[in-house]
User: Fold this.
Amino acid sequence: MYRVPSRRKHRVTAKGPNLIPILDAVFIFIFFLLMSASFIKIYEIPSDVPIVSDSEPPSNKKPLALTLIFERDGLILRRGVPAQTVGTFGKDRNGDYDLVALRARLIRLKKTYTNEKTIIFEPRIDVEYEKLVQVMDAVRMLKKTDEALFIKDKDGVETKVKELFSNIVFGNIQG
Assistant:
């Protein structure tokens, strides 16, 4: 009589991989992400893309068309449809823009055009992100130390202007 081969006698069933450690790691990772998400604040500086429109602006009001051009040696501020240079603002020794003079010029323009909120940024050079944000902050916000500006609302009540030119539109960003 023949003996039964040991291979048939002791069948080994294949076990699946042990997924418990992997699932533990995934749940700990998800828990960590959920807990850390509440401590992170992400800030967004709003800016718009130029929009093409067929409608004409009101004929009784000339558009301000305020444009700030970033050049290698400084900033150029222009206004109007045939662009007229309103001011040029150079850089200091550290390479920072003269934001104090820029703000002073923008406040003078805001006194004349109190309802205008749009400014167009035209970078003709590569601008560092931090310098761009500094210029955007100087253009957007009125500080508490700045001269107070007032506009009349629909009811004729004067309200204080809280922002300079808050609607920033980027033009020529691929040029």
